[in-house]
Amino acid sequence: MSQQLSLRDRKRAETWAALHAAAARRAIENGLDCVNVEVVAEDAGVSSRTFFNYFACKEDAVLGLQEPSVNQEMLEDFDIEGDLLSEVCKLMLSVLRTIQGGDDSNDLRSRIYQAYPHLRHRRYQYILKVEQLVLETVSSQLAESRRWREQGPDSGWSGHDVDDVASTIVLTAGTRMRHVMQKTWSNPTQTAQFQALDQGMELLRDVLKEIL
């Protein structure tokens, strides 16, 4: 269940949005090379020092990127004893969405990627952070799970390290995330992305049946 934002959190979200909007606007109107921290901070009505409390660099501000996170609601929704591939895919998509702040329908962001396609590499760096965070979460929960503790000698996991098993699952889930991003690039809303994930999971299972 979503909790109402505190005054402090709301203020922080407003400052983040103001910095992102200012940086993105400057990049579109004046060019990426003309964007600098001092000007963006001034446009947003904050100090340059405050800027770095929100973004590591001007590119992150332009794209609206932030560090990935796993909150309590995600952990409660994640069922380590359930359909593990599906559960990890849903967790990864939820975490992936945390790196991209702001409005789902942010037209400025789409225009930025069109004008500066090389910035997609910066986003990819954040996706790698997402995969690492999800891997740590899955590995930790799997090691403590009943399905891992009670696996028999005939289990497909028998003899394998828990971190290696978790890594394989996360890497497989990562292929679905790329499918989701490709399918929803022009409409990256939560509804559209989870619908694309469901469709992609069905395709993945069909393909695995044929190749395994």
UniProtKB/TrEMBL annotation:
SUPFAM superfamilies referenced in this protein's UniProt entry, alphabetically: Homeodomain-like (SSF46689)
Matches recorded under InterPro entries: Homeodomain-like_sf, HTH_TetR
GO molecular function: DNA binding
Domain HTH tetR-type: 13-73
Start-end of DNA-binding region: 36-55
Keywords assigned by UniProt, alphabetized: DNA-binding
One Pfam family this sequence matches: TetR_N
Membrane spanning stretches: none
Record's protein name: TetR/AcrR family transcriptional regulator
Source organism: Arthrobacter caoxuetaonis
Phylogenetic lineage: Bacteria, Bacillati, Actinomycetota, Actinomycetes, Micrococcales
